Amino acid sequence: MREIILTPGAVVIVPLTDDGRVRLVRQYRSAAGEFLLELPAGTLEPGESPAAAAPRELAEETGDRAAHWERLAGFYTIPGICDEYLHLFLATGLTPGETNREADEFMEVVTLPLEEALAMVKTGAIHDAKTMIGLLLAAER
After folding, report:
1. How far apart are CA 58 and CA 63, in angstroms?
2. Which of 4, 8, 26, 50 has its CB 3.0 to 4.6 Å from that of 87, i.e. a possible disulfide?
3. Do the beta carbons of residue 79 and residue 2 sit within 8 Å?
């Protein structure tokens, strides 16, 4: 018998500023046992579309609002044991605002030049898969 983890899916956002910087969040991940630098992301609410979830999660985690949205890709996280499908979006035309984090979300917003974040992927300083994929695809734009 095989156990499979079922999820509603999630969104991942690559928030790029007008001057070519990316907004990331640093948060502790219990399963990894360390602080990870990641793109903003979050689970879909019941009945929520990915296009509606992405702006909600971006505002919740970074406080940013985006004028322009583009779907970059979609992918499974660990299809051998989980059905989680991530919808990846590029967010541009950012306007800062207030965050609206959940009570158990403790994170720091980190803004880096996209080229620096890409270098961190290559050196292993960023090793979260969704973040690596998002940064690499956004750099092609």
Report:
1. 7
2. 50
3. no
- Sign for the CA dihedral angle at 43, 132, 129, 134 comes to positive
Question: How many Cβ atoms from other residues are within 10 Å of residue 51's Cβ?
Answer: 12
Which residue out of 105, 108, 115, 116 is catalytically annotated?
105
Annotation says 140 is catalytic: no
> E-assigned strands of the chain?
10-15, 21-29, 34-38, 41-43, 65-76, 85-95, 107-113
